[in-house]
Amino acid sequence: MTIIFQNLTKNFKNVVAVRDFNLTIEDGEIMGLLGPNGAGKTTLILTMATVYHPSRGTVLVNGSDVKRAPTLVRSMIGIAFQDPRFDRLLSVHEVLDWHAKITGVAKGVRASRVEDVMRRLGLWEVRKRRTWALSGGMKKRVEDSKVFIQRPPVAVFDEPTAYLDLQTRLLVWDMIKEMKEEGRTIILATNMMDEAEKLSDRVTIMNLGRLVALGTPSQLRHNVKGGEVIEVKPSDSFKIDLEALRMLPNVEDMSVSDGTLKLFVTEGRKALPIILEKLSEQGIGVESIYLKEASLEDVFLQYAGSKLTS
Fold this sequence. Notes:
By secondary structure, this protein is α/β, with parallel strands linked by helices. The chain folds into 2 domains: 3-216, P-loop containing nucleotide triphosphate hydrolases (Rossmann fold, 3-Layer(aba) Sandwich), CATH 3.40.50.300; 225-293, Alpha-Beta Plaits. Helix content is 36%, strand content 28%. It is built from 11 helices and 14 strands. The protein has a 6-stranded mixed β-sheet, with helices on both faces. Helix 3 (92-102) packs across helix 4 (107-120) and helix 4 runs antiparallel to helix 5 (136-150). The longest helix is centred in the middle third of the chain and has 16 residues, at 166-181. The chain is globular, with a radius of gyration of 22 Å.
């Protein structure tokens, strides 16, 4: 199902959470949604899901307007929230069976589908346990299971692998890919760069309620000025003459965050010794330095001037 955000703006009193947002998510694609806390990702998702009413603009889900046909839109969407949302007095099986019922999973397949998902995600042995007694990772498995059982036309996963061990994380990735192969449209809100790289057909980067970048992971990396990054851990970042570094050949841009200097460069192998020499002239020692290709986090850093953090 195609999802179209048309000039969407959402205000909360004097705070603009989403501002003039335009995006088309194609039928059957996985759209990665990246941005730091406060970027507007959750507000965007909840407005699409009709939890919030648009202040201006609208969202169309398979041609249905969230303002004019909210009930129909809700019937097409399933969300696995970042923080698990279910009655914690119920057992694991009760939570998932109830979710299957209220989302319209046919009675003839409900029991087998619930069991299959629980077995795959390692929940079968704890199916009778009250969910309040589960670990954070187990609660996250239950939350993800709700959408895997529902199998909605539009599936939204908000930080789907937070708190999960590596083996379960890879399993969840496989299950999301299976949903895509079934033709479902998926929104993947995550701050885990490898997750966005592995799963997303395209990536939207948000900051301060706006769309700041859109493209495939490869396209976004190639859009970084210079295309390579030299990351330096200096002995004293406060004494660095940044303007002197900025004037060096092959240096396109730079930033300093958490005591680490990042220089966006062309021909990194040529730039590296020149940068080291300039730092030495300034009396700056170097604890570590390495050259790498630009990452999605570097893309965000260049667009928004801040790191992607959960």
